[in-house]
Amino acid sequence: MTATLEGLSVSVARLVHIYRADGHDVAALSGVDLSVSAGGTLALLGPSGAGKSTLLSLIAGMERPTAGTITIGDQRTDQLDDAEIDTWRGDRVALVLQGGHRNLLPYLTVRDNIRLAQWGSTNATPDAEDLISWVGLQDDVADCRPAQLTESQAQLAALCVGAAAAPGLLLADEPTASLSTDATEQVISALQRVNDALGTTILTVTHDPTLASAMQRTVTIRDGRVGAHAQDGVELAVVSPDGSVPLPDDVLDELPPGTLLRVQRDPDQEHLRLVVEPWDGQEGRGA
Ligand SMILES: Nc1ncnc2c1ncn2[C@@H]1O[C@H](COP(=O)(O)OP(=O)(O)OP(=O)(O)O)[C@@H](O)[C@H]1O
């Protein structure tokens, strides 16, 4: 089995999304900058309502941004109209929705769900049986209909369907939600297998620290903005285009919104190092 499609890079810049609900506006994203390299894996973390699923569906092209740019590979997808984006997405981008069963047609077997997802693909697609064994499902699951599957089997089958067309980008919304520890490990292995075998870039929304730590990078979304990055175990803060720097949660606990901070360069340091201390209004004294 060979893949013809390289993983696709993702870059979003100054992304804003406003929902209009019951006559009032909800700003789900307020200027997100994010990039994922081709073939990379990234977990989007953040509290409920932070805007993670909105970001995923904008990248998938299911929703259109209010403002900002989305570039996948070398395509500015925010510039495509609805019909163009459907055609462009084709076998390039797959979205696995939260809840395995939602991704499967109920009247088809798992094998036929996979084959349907491969229909029309110009990529070198894996055999349905290979996909089923990669994700750790038993062979006989191929002939089952979704109603016969447990929640974890359905989630693994949904990943098979997502990976079926050998997409360049696989988006997965909470793929381990409400699964046991063993099933979670199986889903993580399946995602890593797809990433290794097909070179597919993987972007997943999750609340699950086990899944997040298995991805190469994590990005935390807070109140519709990027709050923090972590890469190779190093916590990173991101300077926003407006010059603001979101503080890590544990620091924010000590410095509630409205706290005045004094920011100085540390004179003893050769490299730029900022000293940040609460300001009590008296020169030379921190709080
Ligand atoms: N279709 C919609 N219409 C109006 N508001 C919406 C819609 N979808 C989401 N929102 C609002 O946008 C904000 C971001 O929602 P979103 O679902 O993207 O957050 P999330 O981080 O994925 O949350 P969760 O972890 O609970 O899924 C929330 O305030 C939510 O209520």
From TrEMBL:
One Pfam family, short name: ABC_tran
Keyword Oxidoreductase: no
InterPro entries: AAA+_ATPase (IPR003593), ABC_transporter-like_ATP-bd (IPR003439), ABC_transpr_LolD-like (IPR015854), P-loop_NTPase (IPR027417)
SMART domains: AAA
Domain of life: Bacteria
Limits of the ABC transporter domain: 13-251
Keywords, sorted A to Z: ATP-binding, Nucleotide-binding
GO terms assigned for molecular function: ATP binding; ATP hydrolysis activity; transmembrane transporter activity
GO cellular component, one term: plasma membrane
Name of the protein: ABC transporter domain-containing protein
Organism field: Luteipulveratus mongoliensis
